[in-house]
């Protein structure tokens, strides 16, 4: 069986999941991992017995490959992605595709020029609750959406302790982009207007100069309006690293999702945890769950030529909305798209 040769760029908190999934995918030969950090490179070499490199250029000069995953920090996707695209490689890019519309367009143009395929890891589309909701919304010819609510919040440890680049991102680029992508997918049309307000107080006081919380009203072409809330300051004592709820009212249905409650509680000496057991789980020496699914799906699409579930165009459209949210925050005005 011919395997696809794949590499991962950025093997930090999330990129290591790409390494895990590729290592276990029978159609993939994981040829290399690239990360600036010597500690990460050492750990990856020991655990996965795979060659590592400190720069993309060095990796590309020394290895043959068909595709790469880019899992560098939000604001640092564009450079390694375009370098690989210019080498003719297909690319899976972590969300957000990039943090500006201009950077997303550069990735799109480079992909067109080099005739390569670019997917975006909007993994929430693989969440069973989201799939159920999507199917419900598309079940009836006569049903139409009236209003929606979605929040996605992280505990304060994420921007202050998990990574060092909190200043360069915010709850919109890190979390809101997931929500915008889900809303576009649910609605099957584009956003026409956003209005946003936000607060910057707690995180700046802790040395992370970014928004604590942003609230937006988002209008879609079909007339449905959504309230979106994203925050990076949930208390550390919260039962899970993040919290997310959705409520959609349509002409025929009322659908509510509480992602905080995935049916499992685990109590230890510190607190009660409510793990998202559908996201990543180890079973029979394999990583399973909706975190792993889009990475395997990227490989499936490269092999059978099927469309990506979320591609570079979805990444660009989501970035247009997140950029409009930022503009609305700056100007305190409604922004039309
Ligand atoms: N942490 C999460 O829960 C999570 C969840 C979903 C998606 N993501 C996305 O995954 C991406 C990575 O996030 P993370 O939390 O893993 O960050 P991280 O800081 O833990 O890891 C990023 C890694 O990229 C490396 N890096 C940066 N630029 C590089 C380059 N040019 N070449 C090689 N290595 C480079 C860094 O050394 C670092 O190890 C982000 O876009 C984020 O939005 C993260």
TrEMBL record:
Residues 159-252 form the GFO/IDH/MocA-like oxidoreductase domain. InterPro entries: Gfo/Idh/MocA-like_OxRdtase_N, Gfo/Idh/MocA_Oxidoreductases, GFO_IDH_MocA-like_dom, NAD(P)-bd_dom_sf. Transmembrane segments: none annotated. Residues 4-122 form the Gfo/Idh/MocA-like oxidoreductase N-terminal domain. Pfam families: GFO_IDH_MocA (PF01408), GFO_IDH_MocA_C3 (PF22725). This is Gfo/Idh/MocA family oxidoreductase. It comes from Enterococcus xiangfangensis.
